[in-house]
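Tutorial handout. Part one gives the primary structure; part two gives the three-dimensional structure as tokens.
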Amino acid sequence: MMTLKTLRTLVLVPLAMAATLAVAQTGTIVMASTTSTEQSGLFPHLLPEFKKATGIDVKVVAVGTGQAIDMGRRGDADVLFVHDQVAEEKVVAEGFAIKRFPVMYNDFVLVGPAADPAKAKGKDIVEALKKLSAANANFVSRGDKSGTHAAELRYWKNAGIETPADKPAFANYKACGCGMGPALNIAASSGGYVLADRGTWLSFKNRGDLAVLVEGDTRLFNQYGVMVVNPAKHPQTKVVEAQKFVDWVISPAGQGVIAGYKINGEQLFFPNATK
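Part two.
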């Protein structure tokens, strides 16, 4: 005759096994991403919603885009969430990532002292950089092979200013080899100019007398992409879970969460996923 205790055991044991299996199936993935997505506060807003939808945890390693992509090449991440389209397409072509998906965009801004001693203010980033070089302005570069650094180097090139060893020749150009937040801190404390992504700028608290001086130039467009590391190169890649993240973040649900992230009523990122 089955007792109540036996019945409870028969019910609870399979439930416990199912719960254990669910944890094993969901697990944790490693995402190599940019300091801009982390320091803007997007991930603390986005990733809990992904976990609610899938049960999967995401461990973020926030570095410059170049370093993030190198993590993918080495197999040290399962998914990449970065913002240098040329480099992203290259890593896919090399076979280290499966497919690149556009996920969202914002823009870059040139930030500097509100007094603007170099007279860089305007809507043309190329003309602004010419003025900064001519004035030997105090310019803080991330200098870390990030997506922001790559964009900055493109703008110097567009301005006709040589960048040997990835540095313009004027004396007050300083490369910190650091993330976006620290670069902004240095600019704030030294009265310097700096190229920043708008997301990090909007979330940055220690502004001092810094102000946005150049914005609205179409060349300042800043696209983000997401891709799964290729298990053909790195069999340890948690490809099923990583693909779930990609599928979710480009879905209406994930895109809606991105669009809903605001600071003081201002939207930081604009979803534009295509499949």
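Part three, for discussion. The two ends are 58 Å apart (CA to CA). The longest helix spans residues 4-26.
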